[in-house]
Structure formats: structure tokens, C-alpha cells
């Protein structure tokens, strides 16, 4: 029996890890589809967090050996700052987040968090430091309370409510007949994209990670909801090192640095204003998105940042 206990125990651990991974990262990382390629070094120490700076040094990566996805990607996010990655579909933006979370190891270069190569620390400690608001939040078939509390299961009710308030979803929850006990997910109340994203934000706030990854939804939210969520992200990004994978440029006008990726290479970098002034890819992308945005409200918004 004792001989059996160890493998069963490690199976249990694996199961919990998979569960945890799924809950935290949802579809973006669909863990079960991903090969397990990454292992802890024997007795790998925990990541020692000191502010949460992130450095990609000449990172090269491909999912398959014969097809490179990222080439010589080099950037630094100082502790507490926000970096945004933009670019065409398939440019490799989400791959940056997957590498930071260490679902895969880089083929070239290295990734450092607070000066430590992420391959040398335990995955559990690395992942505990990172909160992800995924593109499309998949909710558990359980109560709203459970879905938020998952960010930190030992949190008190007061903390769960405070996180919901910060994510501007508390009033909505209270307006439901069953409040926090309302069932959601496939078999429960259907929530809008914006409401689901706020639950994901509340969950992440409760986790209180030092590093935040926000993978913006590709599917458009209505302009008003989008604007509100942008404000919320800006608020929670303020004290954290943040990587935003952006599809709409309006989300990232205030980022400390913006990288423009094309076919796995950084082709431009700078602030919103410097990139607009540069008249390159970013400026062209911005002009294109402005044309497709509708409504006076948006033109005002564009004028403020032009
Ligand atoms: P989008 O804006 O459409 O979300 P992206 O810039 O985030 O795109 P990535 O998701 O990083 O792009 O994908 C970069 C490239 O890697 C794409 O060509 C994609 O097909 C490929 N890719 C992504 N995940 C895998 C995987 N698990 N196995 C093999 N190739 C993959």
C-alpha cells in the first residue's frame, strides 16, 4: 500500500496542477492539448520575487523544430511597468505569454523574472506569481462565488466581495436573485463576454499576482464595455508588471512600451506617440482601426490620443 501511495499522490498532484492550470489560463493555454515538455530541475528553488521585472533576452522559439515562431525577441518590463505586444494574427503574441508561463522552454536566449532564469526555479512558484486574464474566460459550472474564489480558495467572503467590487461586477451580482450563489457556466446563467471577463479580473485580483498577463479578447465587446474594462485593466496594472497581448490598439495607448511583432520578430517598438510619429506599421494599423471604429465617442477618443 505504501508503495502505491507515492505514485497515487503524485497523480493527485498532477491532476490538481492541471486543474489549476485550466482554471487560471482557460482556453488560451488549453493545458490538456499541450505536450508536457517542461520539467522542474531536481530541487529547483522557488522563484524569489523582488518587484517582478521581466526580461526576454534574444528569445528564439518554435513549436516544431523546423518552424520558427519567435526570433531574437528582446525586451525588458521593469517592475510595475506595462508592455504591450501588438501585431498581425499569428505573429507570436500569445506565444510570449505561454513562454513566460513556461508551458514551453525557449530554444534560444532566456527569460528572466527578477534576474532568475525561469528554467531554474520551480514551475509552481513561477505560476503562482503570474495572473492571467485570458481571451475567453471559461467559467466552471458552479456559483459565481466559487468562480471568483478559485483565484485564492482560502480567501474570506469579504475578500471575494472586495475583488468583485474592484472588478466592477459586485452590483451586477447583487442584482441577481441568488446573488453570489447564482450558478454560471454551461449549465447556469449565461453571462456576456464583458461580465465573464470581469469575473476573470476579480479572480485574478484575488490571486494578487505580481505579474499580470492580459490576453485581450479578439471578439469585440461593445465600445462602452470595452472602455470600462480598459479602465479596470489600467487600474489593476498600475502596481503590477503587466504584459498586454492586444488586438485593439485603443487598449494600449498608455503602455510604457509597445512592441510590434511581425512573423515572430519585433519590427517596431516605442510608446504610442513615438510609434505614431514614426509613421510605420503601428501608425498604419492605428489609422486602419480608427476607420473601422464607429461613433462620435470613438472619434473623440482617437482625437485625444492622435
Ligand atoms: P492572434 O492574434 O491570432 O491570437 P498571435 O500573434 O497571438 O495570434 P500565436 O498564438 O502566438 O499568435 O501563434 C503564433 C504561431 O504559432 C501561429 O502560426 C500558430 O499557428 C502557431 N502555434 C500556436 N500554438 C501552437 C501549437 N500549440 N503548436 C503548433 N503551432 C502553434
Task: Report the portion of residues in β strands.
Answer: 15-25%
Major sheet: 6 strands, mixed
Low-confidence stretches: 1-33
What is the helix content? 40-55%
How many β strands by DSSP?
10
Spell out the helices and strands N to C: HEEEHEEHEHHHHEHEEEHHH
Give the cofactors and ligands: adenosine-5'-triphosphate
- Count of helices? 11
- Overall 3D form: globular
Radius of gyration: 20 Å
Question: How far apart, in Å, are the first and last alpha carbons?
Answer: 69 Å
Classify the secondary structure makeup into a structural class: alpha/beta
- Describe the strand arrangement of the main beta sheet, using strand numbers: 6-7-8-3-9-10
| Mean pLDDT value | 83
Give a summary of the structure in a few sentences.
Residues 54-288 form the ABC transporter domain. The chain is α/β, with parallel strands linked by helices and 306 residues long.
Describe this protein's structure.
The protein has 306 residues and is an alpha/beta fold. Helix content is 40%, strand content 18%. Bound molecules: adenosine-5'-triphosphate. Adenosine-5'-triphosphate (ATP) is lined by residues 63, 69, 87, 89-95. It is a multi-pass membrane protein. One of its GO terms (cellular component) is plasma membrane. Its main location: membrane.
Features:
single chain; 306 residues; alpha/beta; globular; disordered N terminus
Could you outline the blueprint of secondary structure elements for this entry?
Blueprint: H1 2-29, E1 54-61, E2 70-77, E3 82-87, H2 93-100, E4 108-113, E5 116-117, H3 123-128, E6 130-133, H4 144-149, H5 157-166, H6 170-175, H7 193-207, E7 211-215, H8 223-237, E8 241-245, E9 257-262, E10 265-270, H9 272-278, H10 281-292, H11 296-305
Parallel strand pairs: 3-8, 3-9, 6-7, 7-8
Antiparallel strand pairs: 1-2, 1-4, 4-5, 9-10
The structure holds adenosine-5'-triphosphate.
